[in-house]
Amino acid sequence: MPLPLRKRLFRTRAGRHWQTLCFVWFGVSVWLVGATAWAQLELPTPLDHYESYDPEEAGRALVLQVMAELSEEKRALAMSLFQSARTTPDRKTTAEEVRHLMEMVEWERWRPQILRLFLHGSRVLEVVPEDYKNWMPIVHDSLLLFLDHLSEERFVDRIVEQVNIPPSAGRGDRILAFISKTPSLQKLAQILARNQIFAPDIRQALQTVENSLSTMNYEAVLAQVKSEIDEETFDRYKLEFSGTILAEASVGAVLRAKFEFPETGRPGEAACKVLKPYAITALKEDLQIIDDVLAY
Hints:
By secondary structure, the protein is mainly alpha-helical. It has helices at 17-28, 49-52, 55-69, 72-87, 95-102, 111-121, 136-149, 152-163, 171-179, 183-192, 200-211, 218-227, 231-236, 277-295; strands at 240-248, 252-260, 267-275. A three-stranded antiparallel sheet has the order 1-2-3. Helix 1 (17-28) packs across helix 3.
């Protein structure tokens, strides 16, 4: 039987969503300071979680708990950064600022709350269609485990991506931020993107992962292509590259090139595809995490 999930668990009020994400930003930014004595996730998540959990209430409670543990000096600094993010939504938060907050708080006491708050705040759970809500516990706990096993650097990237999304952004943008630079989840998004059981706005967002990503700049891709073609070949074929990236997906980017056949001088065109440097490392970690999730 489908779980009796309240729609309020997944809904977003336009006037209050930014406040919720600010709480998520502050709460999650305390994560991964210490490397020992982690507060462990208790899984499976109790079924009443899906009936009663409210991200806004959880965010407020977590902020109050964390702030109560800080010294007056650290509390003032944290509130200064927090208020800056709330009052200047156009301002971009950096990974360095997130890590600075991390250093002030003993995050391990709040780890399970932080993970759940971030998961719900990202709105990625809204991918699950209403008719398939009985699958929510599996999706929920699998993604919790995935987050729990991410490296510090990559999890910080998740925080920064979410924080820097405009308050008016839809759930599709938040879901894309959740899977950003995560090859395994982006590949899953490509598989789901054309399936009619999903909401139109979610399908539209996921379809951008097929060939419309924008995470690399042209100069970096060109430099990588040139590093893999020796100078003699480059000159012999008179290679010329277009000034923009032709296409970009989860693990690769493509440049359009023109060249000449050395024997005949006849012109030709080529597509030069390179693997994104971060994708190679990230995919290795992703696959290990998926093994751990499957084992669980």
